[in-house]
Amino acid sequence: MKAKGFTKGIAQKAAWDMSESEVTPESVFKQRRNIIKALGLGAASASLSTNVQAGLFDVFGNDKPKKAFEVSPLTFTKNQSYQTSEILTPENKVISHNNFYEFGTRKTDPQDNAQGFKVNPWQLKIEGEVEKPLTLDYEDLYKLIALEERTYRLRCVEAWSMVIPWVGFSLAELIKKANPTSKAKYVAFETLYDPEQMPGQRNRYVGGGVSYPYVEGLTLPEAMNELSFLAVGLYGKTLPPQNGAPIRLVVPWKYGFKSIKSIVKIRLVEKMPPTSWNILAPHEYGFYANVNPQVDHPRWSQASERRIGAGGLFSAKRIPTQMYNGYGDQVASLYKGLDLRKNF
Amino acid sequence: MRVTPKQLFWIKGLFHLVALTPIVFLVLNVFSGGAGGDPVQYIIHYTGIGALNTLLITLLISPIAKKMKWPWLMRTRRLVGLYVFAYATLHIAAYFSLDLLFEWRLLGEEIVKRPYILVGAVAYLILVALTVTSLKKLMSKMGRKWQTLHNLIYLAVILVAIHFFWSVKSEIIQPSIYIGLVIVLLSFRWRKLIGFFKD
Ligand code: HEM
């Protein structure tokens, strides 16, 4: 059954409808189409990108139909504590600029290669140091806990950022349902491992040399923090696969790679769990990965970031990066006494 | 194979076309959305690889000309070399304008603080020097010094390979292949390269 089945209900006026001055995604699309038309490039560019895509699929030895993944509208309430006056990153940019190495390392690969991704049926298991292990089926992801919308800043470790309206529920609520034992100190997450569907897991070159399945982790207090969020949608609709369908983590005070996608397992554990980027390059990516303008990545500065907004190529802005991505009020207390230079 | 001036003219035209085609593709991809919603990194990587590929092709010209006994091919080398400079310039311009958004201070800081950027910048300075001195007039004026200066191209290609290897976040297969290619291309000239150290 499709998500549609349980999304009828009061039509929501979504947060992004309210903000006055922004350029909407539609107008961006139109603008771009007009430029292409003006240049007389329409036909040429359309055939080009399908050719490029066809080429990619030949490489992967896989010719799935190129039909776009179907997303469906969700019913949710708006969490008033997490609205913003910042300009949102338009939906078309949010879904076409992704790091999801399971589908390839280029920013365009996930959208190009993930449209055939199957999310239903899905199983998300909550297990380990819990009294009541849980298994959520596809439908449960949208039903078990009432959905809410929160707009968060997303700061990538590569020094670009977006502002995205997510739909989902608080991670803490889910964990509470499983009733962690007193031994539980950390939470370990795991992405689906399915080389059939994920070319990056079949081929080291496509997958950027990450050892799969992708794993991430939080301390239990981090996971129970009110900010930690499990998203099942964005811009009012179910997640497209390139953004981590059907369910992904969003921890907005940490660099984007902590916000693991397409989760199948949440395990409460006693010891600090391994995390994928830390395994790959321990001197560059730590376990905590809190956004911190004072601690540079060894190869680039983290003091400022390129905010991807609504306009064209030159419209992005470089803005100073905020400590904990601006969420210090909620999370700074988690790190009292911790040397953030060592625990980067 | 002998080539008339007229044929050489057409061959050079073909080289221009081949060198410019990727730019057309880039523009089309950026405007059609084929380069993603935020094509900045795509453009930086695309032009960076373009510069390196063109640099490798430049280094292939003289071995091929010798092997095939095609002296006319040598006369395309300057043209191809200038495209190396053009692609490298686009690469850096894209980084500075689209990624850093014209923050001079940040550019300065990054060049000083990041070894991979510093290595790229040194390579670029070499390319600038070679481009400026590629004028025929200067060539004859400089005499032997010209050759000495232009031998820096070997240093440049090594630096660019290092720049690439150092810049990637994870997968090192592609930069490793390029390092391999650089070694092969330099090995064609090992006598000359060893000569540098004997002098
Ligand atoms: C001041 C000089 C230079 C600067 C500031 C610079 C900057 C950069 C940056 C920011 C990247 C991307 C790193 C990332 O993935 O985030 C990069 C990659 C690269 N650069 Fe440069 N660069 C310079 C000179 C050069 C030159 C002279 C060449 C070649 C002739 C070159 C070729 C490349 C290549 C091949 C890559 C890798 C592209 C890829 O990963 O696909 N760069 N450079």
From TrEMBL, chain A:
Binds 1 Mo-molybdopterin (Mo-MPT) cofactor per subunit. Its EC number is 1.8.5.-. Mo-molybdopterin binds at residues 98, 101-102, 156, 191, 243, 248, 259-261. It is an enzyme of class 1 (oxidoreductase). It comes from the Bacteria. Its cofactor is Mo-molybdopterin. Keywords: Metal-binding, Molybdenum, Oxidoreductase, Signal. One of its GO terms (molecular function) is metal ion binding. One of its GO terms (biological process) is protein repair. Coiled coil: none annotated. Residues 119-277 form the Oxidoreductase molybdopterin-binding domain. It catalyses: L-methionyl-[protein] + a quinone + H2O = L-methionyl-(R)-S-oxide-[protein] + a quinol; L-methionyl-[protein] + a quinone + H2O = L-methionyl-(S)-S-oxide-[protein] + a quinol. Part of the MsrPQ system that repairs oxidized periplasmic proteins containing methionine sulfoxide residues (Met-O), using respiratory chain electrons. Thus protects these proteins from oxidative-stress damage caused by reactive species of oxygen and chlorine generated by the host defense mechanisms. MsrPQ is essential for the maintenance of envelope integrity under bleach stress, rescuing a wide series of structurally unrelated periplasmic proteins from methionine oxidation. Belongs to the MsrP family. HAMAP family: MsrP. Heterodimer of a catalytic subunit (MsrP) and a heme-binding subunit (MsrQ). This is Protein-methionine-sulfoxide reductase catalytic subunit MsrP. It comes from Parashewanella curva.
Automatic annotation (TrEMBL), chain B:
It is a multi-pass membrane protein. One of its GO terms (molecular function) is heme binding. This is Protein-methionine-sulfoxide reductase heme-binding subunit MsrQ. GO terms for cellular component: plasma membrane. It comes from Parashewanella curva. Residues 48-160 form the Ferric oxidoreductase domain. The chain crosses the membrane at residues 9-31, 43-65, 77-96, 116-136, 148-166, 172-190. Its cofactor is FMN; heme b. Heterodimer of a catalytic subunit (MsrP) and a heme-binding subunit (MsrQ). Keywords: Cell membrane, Electron transport, Flavoprotein, FMN, Heme, Iron, Membrane, Metal-binding, Transmembrane, Transmembrane helix, Transport. One of its GO terms (biological process) is protein repair. InterPro entries: Fe3_Rdtase_TM_dom, MsrQ-like.
